Every structure is written in structure tokens, then in C-alpha cells.
UniProtKB/TrEMBL annotation:
Pyruvate phosphate dikinase AMP/ATP-binding domain residues: 15-309
PANTHER family, sorted: PHOSPHOENOLPYRUVATE SYNTHASE-RELATED, PPDK_N DOMAIN-CONTAINING PROTEIN
Annotated segments matching region Disordered: 741-763
Protein name, per record: Phosphoenolpyruvate synthase
Annotated NCBIfam families: PRK06241.2-2
Top-rank lineage group of the source organism: Bacteria
Organism encoding this protein: Planosporangium flavigriseum
Location of the PEP-utilising enzyme mobile domain: 811-878
Length: 887
């Protein structure tokens, strides 16, 4: 059994994998490669045989297909986690770790066939950074082996007709380099396909922030002959990933003065170009090189061939970028087929009308029809934006670069090289002059909408209210399904089709906030992070806060009636609501009236309110009672002290004409944010109406036997439901379709969620995903987590980790994501922490107005914090301190 490979020795790809073979070649050619060794494929074989794991894996792989790759991969991963190393394999790991002198290392997969000239396998397998200690190394070696059978590697092999059972996996142990600057060098321009240019992407700290897309990067284009820098795009590098004390890595803020500066010096750029030329000469083909600078030395971490260049073989592949960062607030977790298909149609209508409102000619609208029909994607039951289609639509407007920069700041999703390489052209005219004329007309039209936002929204809301009052007054449960469907299509034609103005409004917000953001960067470069979002507080009376304020009022009134309050406290939420409906006395009647008014006004504002399958507060008021009890426990004492004040900061740092200009821009942002909240509340009620109608249709179809049960309607797609009333589907197909989807959803719930962002090439029906991200081992290790400041203030208390609102109590609420229905928890929460989100989301805006300290975009928050963990939240600094458990 070959157990390891020593630095500078001979290394064959069949025994040590493609990545190790490339490192061997680089080392022997004299490049500065950090000390490393490799654990050969023979150790992997020994482990599988000695533990009996190999037979179980082979049995699972015999049944693998494109349809069940995720399920098979999850089962295999669980088997690896439950199977310890046999003595011989552990001895090999111990010896290999000793060869690189122990301490902090990177543990990298090296599969047979990986990084070959034909197929790169980039992103298919796992790697881990800053791993310390032999036990941790052994665990990570097993994890690398397990990634041999990850869903993405299995589907990759299916796509390329590669054998699944004969996969060999070696593992590289390499000295960890605490990089000051790092990145990727492409010895040919992967954006344009030009072989006479090199492309350098660079970030502060470790390069994994660049590879995963978590950190914005600089992009430098270099002429390979002269060495001249021909193009520079400086990313706003607000964060860097660095080594944490002990093991693991952490995200740090970059000093404000360095964010807009180029990470590389001129000398470093020239050294990278020269090194890239030598590496390409060594391999005889363009290379993708990962590098790092530490202590003024350039380290080559790995190199792989560039397997496809634009304009060359493989360039015609249909590349799609999928991302859920900007949609997870509305469609988190598993989403029912009816909701997805309804949302897909809605988004198509919205963006079609958006383009029409901007004056896009009909001929161009016809060409964009396929884009409108596929603005959203559906993977393992999760909803994703089709990013390149979105870029095509948004790119119609001037200032796309500014828009994209603000999206990166708000959502934490910087533009990636794949986006830049495949960015589509919005208009398809043969003449540049005609294109310029069309874009000018669109810009003028958009400018008019910017100036007339308020009256435009007012007109839309007047029409909406007229339709809403009429439609919401109907009891659809008493109508036959065919009549409900007829009314549903009427609402679609008269109301839902007009929602393009909301897309225009969102882009007005991005433009106006982009202007303010640019002014802040230029005139207030040292402004703290909290200031950028706190400066656009909308006002205490914004509609976002009304549900929370109404709950606070109800709780205050209930607190004056201790007997009634005690009766509410001592019963479960649903039982308390049912008891209150029949409870005697004026106090109970007063509370009933208050709750009825709340449900009438805000009954559609509930958790997952845009997911049609989720009951709203009108259907199930249990959540309302739960939030009321939480607010009851808080009392009338003041909330956390907020010492940060945007006006005071402006008074101290900006005066004169600049202050006047800044305030004008600030008022503009506040005004459009206020209008957006009004329109979004209308959207909430529109989806609530649709939910009532579709629920009634499902109930009637179940009564007639077309469905097994009423809620099976949500397992149909909208086009299938339409077919039941238009004669384009046999009604006998509905029951088996619903059962098929129900079973499929049960399987999806057992699978790990797809990554937040990934790339597909060609047929997405294979489930193939390329998420080119290494694992930052132990990210945010230590006692302090960092995210994006959203609402200032300091709070200390116990965490309450929730996956839906309710039972928050007077605690620090911790969650993976929120939607507008979470605003009720702000009535009791002492602070709010969100792993995925934006400072411009509905709940973040409401939290600022209510003075609730809030931090968003906190990596691995829900992995690190459990209910009961004692925390201190600093909303201005964007930090969460985890306090040690008291003995």
C-alpha cells in the first residue's frame, strides 16, 4: 500500500490524482510551492475494504441516476461520517501530517482524472483550510474521500459518461499560507478568449473568498507580450478571509482606506505575469493558477488547465448562473410546485410589463420572450433567480455597473468572472447607432419614472384597492371551482399583470441608493458600516412597522387586564385563541375586536406569505397569539440603547454645499423606500387573495374526487391546474401527479439544500451544478461572528434560534432567513440576527425604525449559535460575541 508522497518526488496521476501530479510537476520545475505531501489512492482503497464501506458504496452507486444523485450522495456521506479510519489508514494520515511538520495545513482532494486537459472537475470535490491537529486532519481526509461521491461529482460523471465505482481519490496535505493577497491567474483571458492577454483576480487575505464569490475582487488584464496593464476593475473589497487564532478562518473588515485600492502592486502584477508565462510554457497550454503573496514571496498553490475558452472548443455551451440571495426572503426552503409556477408566471408578467413601460420596442420584446419565461429556476424544490436573464433585463437601464455594485453590497453577492464572461446584451440590433438610440429613449423614459414615482404609485394603489375590496369580500369556499377559476383569471388580467411598476420602482431604489452610496464613498470614506444603512431610515410611521406596533399596543392594553393576560399565558396558542372567541366579559370582547382588526388589516402578512401552500394568519391565527404572548412578556421598559445617530454623524463630518446635495439624495432614497413598502404590502394582499382562491379550488376538486385531498392542489403546477378547466389535461392525471410530487417533496426534504449560487452548463435537467467553492474550514471560528451592520444598538441576552416567527420572547432572535411575516417578532425581540439577508429587506427596514439592533449576512450563524447561547450583539459594528458557558 502506498501511503504518501514526499515533496519533490515523482508523482503519477493514477496513484495520487491530477492535482497532486500537477503540484509535483510545479515543485520539480522550481516554482515556490508550499511544502506538501499526498496520501495516495491506495489508502482510500484500504479504508474502504478494511471497514466494509466499499461494498455499501458500490451497492448504492449501482442504483445511481440523474434523478436520485442527491439522495445517493447524502446516504454515502452519512456512511463516511459514521465510519472511523481503520488503524492502517490512520497511521498513513499520521505519517503524512508529520511529513509537512504538523501545524496548520490545507487538506485538498486530488481525484484521479481531476485537473486533466480534457476535464477539469473544478469545484467537484472538497478542500479545507487551516486545519490543525492530527484528529482534525483525519476527519478532513475522510471528508475529502466522501466528496468523491458528492451529488455534483456524481452528476458530473453521469454527464460525461465516466465510471462512478472506479473513482480513485488521493488527498494533499499542504502547509497553510497565511496570505496577505491572493487570487487566481488565468494565462489566457477567459472573459474574451484572447490568448495574448492574461487575467488576474485578486483579493486581500485568503483566495477562497474569491473562489466562493463571498468577497469582491480586483480584476486586472495584462498584455502578455509587453506586460502592460490594459484594464483594471477595482472591486470594493469590504472584507477579507484570514486565519483565525488556533484553527479555522474568519472574515474581517478591510480598512476603509484600502477597500478601493488595488490589492496588488505593479511589481506583483509583473511577477505574476512572468510566473504565468513559465507555468504555461511548462504545461504547453493555458492554465488556471491559484497563487498567494505572503512575506513578499509569491507562492503557487495549484495549477489546472483551462478546459474551454470563449470562441474555442466548449465555448458554445449554454451557461446559466443561478442565485437565491435576492429571492430567499420570499421563497425560502422547499417551495410547492403551484407556488413556483405561479411565481414564475408572475415574474414573467412583471418583467415583460417592466420592459414595455420603459419603451422597449415590440420586436425586441418578442426576442426576449424566452427570457421572461425563465426568470426563475427550480432545483430540489428551491427557487433561484436565473441571473443572466435578470442581467439582460436590468442591463436595459443606464448605470448597470452601479446597480450591480449596490446589489453586491446589499446582498453580499459580488459579480463573478462567470457573470462577466457571459453577460448578455439586452438589445439585439445589428446597428450600434440604432441600439444607442433605443437605449437613449429607454433612459429618458426611466428618468421620467424616477421623477414621478409618488403619483405613479398612488395611481396604481388606487386601482389595486378598488379591485382588492371587491375580490376580498367574496367567500370562495361557497363557489364551485370553475367559478373561482374564472374570477382568478380576471384578477390576473386586471391586477397581477400591472405589477411591472414594482420592478421599475425597485430599480429606481437601486439607482437612488447607488447615488447616495457613491456620495458616501467619496465624501465620507471613513463612515462606519452601520451608517450606510442607518442613514436611509424611512421614518417611524412606515408601513413595515405597523404590524409590530399594533401588537405592542394590544399587549400594552392586555397587560392592564391581568386576569385575561393570565388566561392567555396559561393556554397553548391555538387553545388560547379558541377560548378567547367565546370568553365572556368586556375585556375579552375588547381583545377580540383588536385581534379581528389586526387580522383584517394584516392577516395576509404572515410567515412565508408569498408561498401559496403556507396558511396565513386568517387561516391559522395561532402564530398571532404566539407573537402577542411574546409582546406581553416584554413590558413597557425601553429597548436597547441606540447611541449611533446618522444625523449627528453628518453634522460632524459633512457641511456646506456637499451636505445640501447629500440630503437631497438621502430624501430621494427615503421617499422611494417608503413607496416600495406600500407596494409590497399590496403584493402581500394580492398573493393572499390568490391563496384563498386556489385553496377553494383545491377543496372543490377534492370534493369531486379529482384530488385526494384539498391541499394536493399545491402539488400541481399552475399550467396543469389551468388544464383542468380548459380541457388541456385529463382530470384523471391530477391525482397521480399530486402524489408523485408529494413523494418527490418528501425526498427533497431529506436532501441538503443546493448552494446559494451555482452554475450549470447545458441541460439543467441533469441536476448538474458547478459551485466552484473551496471550504473555508471553521469559518468564523472563535468567540466573535461578523456580518453586515443593519441597525445599530447593543443588546446582551439569550439566543432563540427560529425557523419561523413565533415564540421569540424577549430574546435575541437568530434565524437563517426572514420574510415580511417576521415583522411581528420585532415587538418582543431584543436583537435580530439573520444569516442570509440584506439591510434593504422588509424586516431589516422595520428593525431600524423600531430600534432593534440587527446584523445580517453572518456566515454559518445557525451552525454556530443554539437556543440558549448567551450573546452580545453590536448592531453598529456588525459583531456577535458568543459568551462562554458558565460552569
Amino acid at each position: 500500500m502506498t501511503s504518501q508522497f514526499l515533496l519533490n518526488g515523482q508523482c503519477g496521476p493514477e496513484e495520487f490524482g491530477g492535482k497532486a501530479a500537477n503540484l509535483s510537476r510545479l515543485s520539480r520545475a522550481g516554482f515556490e510551492v508550499p511544502a506538501w505531501t499526498a496520501i495516495g489512492t491506495g489508502v482510500f482503497d484500504t479504508y474502504r475494504k478494511a471497514t466494509g464501506l466499499g461494498a455499501r458504496i458500490d451497492a448504492a452507486l449501482a442504483e445511481v441516476s440523474a434523478d436520485n444523485a442527491d439522495e445517493v450522495a447524502a446516504a454515502i456521506r452519512a456512511a463516511f461520517a459514521a465510519t472511523a479510519l481503520d488503524p492502517a489508514s490512520r497511521a498513513a494520515v499520521v505519517d503524512a501530517y508529520a511529513e509537512v511538520a504538523g501545524g496548520a495545513i490545507a487538506v485538498r482532494s486530488s481525484a484521479v482524472g481531476e485537473d486533466s486537459t480534457g476535464l477539469s472537475y473544478a469545484g467537484q470535490y472538497d478542500s479545507f483550510l487551516n486545519v490543525v491537529g492530527v484528529d482534525a486532519v483525519a476527519d478532513r481526509v475522510r471528508a475529502c474521500w466522501a466528496s468523491t461521491y458528492s451529488a455534483r461529482s456524481l452528476t458530473y460523471r453521469l454527464l460525461h459518461d465516466l465510471p462512478g465505482q472506479e473513482t480513485g481519490m488521493a488527498v494533499i496535505l499542504q502547509r497553510f499560507v497565511p496570505a496577505e493577497v491572493s487570487g487566481v491567474l488565468f494565462t489566457a483571458n477567459v472573459l474574451s478568449g484572447r490568448r495574448d492577454e492574461m487575467l488576474i483576480s485578486a483579493v486581500y487575505g485568503l483566495g477562497e473568498g474569491l473562489v466562493s464569490g463571498a468577497v469582491d475582487a480586483d480584476t486586472v488584464t495584462v498584455d502578455r507580450t509587453s506586460g502592460a496593464v490594459t484594464d483594471v476593475v477595482v472591486g470594493e473589497k469590504r472584507e477579507r478571509i484570514t486565519r483565525a487564532a488556533g484553527a479555522g478562518c474568519r472574515t474581517e473588515r478591510v480598512e476603509p482606506g484600502r477597500r478601493a485600492a488595488l490589492a496588488l502592486t505593479t511589481a506583483q502584477i509583473h511577477l505574476l505575469r512572468a510566473t504565468g508565462e513559465r507555468i504555461e510554457e511548462l504545461y504547453g497550454a493555458p492554465q488556471d493558477v491559484e497563487w498567494a503573496f505572503a512575506d513578499d514571496r509569491l507562492y503557487v498553490l495549484q495549477a489546472r488547465p483551462i478546459t474551454a475558452l470563449p470562441g474555442g472548443e466548449g465555448a458554445g455551451d449554454d451557461v446559466r448562473v443561478w442565485d437565491n440571495s435576492n429571492i430567499i426572503e420570499s421563497y425560502g426552503e422547499i417551495t410547492a410546485p403551484l407556488t413556483f409556477s405561479f411565481a414564475r408566471e408572475m415574474y414573467g408578467r412583471v418583467y415583460r410589463e417592466y420592459c414595455s413601460l420603459l419603451g422597449v420596442p415590440r420586436s425586441q420584446l418578442a426576442l426576449m420572450e424566452p427570457d421572461f419565461a425563465s426568470m426563475l429556476g427550480y432545483f430540489d424544490g428551491r427557487v433561484y433567480y436565473n441571473v443572466l436573464n435578470w442581467i439582460k433585463v436590468i442591463g436595459l437601464l443606464p448605470g448597470y455597473r452601479l446597480h450591480r455594485r449596490i446589489l453586491a453590497a446589499a446582498m453580499g453577492v459580488p459579480e463573478t468572472p462567470v457573470e462577466r464572461a457571459h453577460r448578455p446584451r439586452p438589445l439585439q440590433y445589428g446597428s450600434r447607432l440604432v441600439t444607442a438610440g433605443a437605449r437613449a429613449r429607454i433612459a429618458v423614459t426611466f428618468g421620467w419614472y424616477c421623477l414621478t414615482v409618488k403619483p405613479s404609485v398612488a395611481r396604481f394603489l388606487r386601482r389595486f384597492e378598488a379591485v382588492y375590496r371587491e375580490v376580498d369580500a367574496v367567500d370562495y369556499a361557497r363557489l364551485p371551482a370553475a367559478e373561482v377559476y374564472r374570477r382568478f383569471t380576471q384578477v390576473e388580467r386586471t391586477l397581477l399583470a400591472q405589477w411591472g411598476r414594482m420592478a421599475v420602482l425597485d430599480n429606481v431604489i437601486m439607482l437612488s441608493y447607488g447615488v447616495l452610496y457613491a456620495l458616501t464613498s467619496r465624501w465620507l470614506p471613513d463612515a462606519p458600516e452601520w451608517f450606510r444603512w442607518h442613514v436611509v431610515k424611512v421614518g417611524a410611521d412606515v408601513g413595515s412597522t405597523l404590524p409590530a406596533r399594533r401588537l405592542i399596543e394590544l399587549a400594552r392594553d392586555l397587560r392592564r387586564r391581568p386576569e385575561l393576560a393570565a388566561a392567555i399565558r396559561e393556554r397553548p396558542a391555538r387553545e388560547a385563541y379558541d377560548w378567547l372567541r367565546v370568553a365572556p366579559g368586556p375585556s375579552a370582547a375588547r381583545l377580540r375586536d383588536g385581534l379581528d382588526r389586526y387580522l383584517h388589516e394584516f392577516g395576509y402578512r404572515s410567515a412565508n406569505e408569498l408561498k401559496l401552500e403556507e396558511p396565513d394568519l386568517r387561516e391559522d391565527p395561532t402564530l398571532l397569539m404566539s407573537m402577542l404572548r411574546d409582546a406581553l412578556e416584554v413590558g413597557d421598559e425601553p429597548g436597547p440603547a441606540v447611541t449611533e445617530d446618522a444625523d449627528a454623524y453628518l453634522d460632524a463630518h459633512l457641511r456646506g454645499p456637499r451636505r445640501w446635495v447629500y440630503e437631497r439624495a438621502r430624501r430621494s432614497v427615503r421617499a422611494v423606500l417608503r413607496e416600495r413598502e406600500r407596494v409590497r404590502f399590496a403584493r402581500t394582499r394580492a398573493f393572499g387573495m390568490a391563496r384563498r382562491m386556489l385553496t377553494a379550488i383545491g377543496a372543490d376538486l377534492a370534493r369531486t374526487g379529482a384530488l385526494s385531498q384539498a391541499r394536493d392542489v399545491f402539488f400541481l403546477r399552475l399550467e396543469e391546474l389551468r388544464g383542468a378547466f380548459t380541457g388541456t389535461i385529463d382530470h384523471r392525471e391530477l391525482r397521480p401527479l399530486a402524489q408523485l410530487r408529494r413523494d418527490q417533496q418528501d425526498r427533497q426534504r431529506r436532501l441538503p439544500a443546493p448552494p446559494p449560487r451555482f452554475v450549470t452548463t447545458g441541460g439543467t435537467y441533469w441536476g448538474q451544478r458547478r459551485a466552484d467553492a473551496a471550504t473555508v474550514d471553521g469559518a468564523e471560528a472563535g468567540d466573535v461572528l461578523r456580518g453586515t451592520p443593519s441597525s445599530p444598538g447593543v443588546a446582551t441576552g439569550e439566543a432563540r434560534v427560529l425557523d419561523r416567527p413565533g415564540d421569540a420572547g424577549a430574546n435575541i432572535v437568530v434565524t437563517y432567513r426572514t420574510d415580511p411575516g417576521w415583522v411581528g417578532v420585532l415587538a418582543s425581540a431584543t436583537a435580530l440576527l439573520i444569516e442570509r439577508g440584506s439591510p434593504l429587506t422588509h424586516v431589516a427596514i422595520a428593525a431600524r425604525e423600531l430600534g432593534v439592533p440587527t446584523v445580517v449576512q453572518i456566515p454559518r450563524l445557525t451552525d454556530r449559535v443554539a437556543t440558549g447561547t448567551r450573546l452580545t450583539v453590536d448592531g453598529a459594528a456588525g459583531t456577535v460575541t458568543i459568551h462562554a458557558e458558565e460552569a
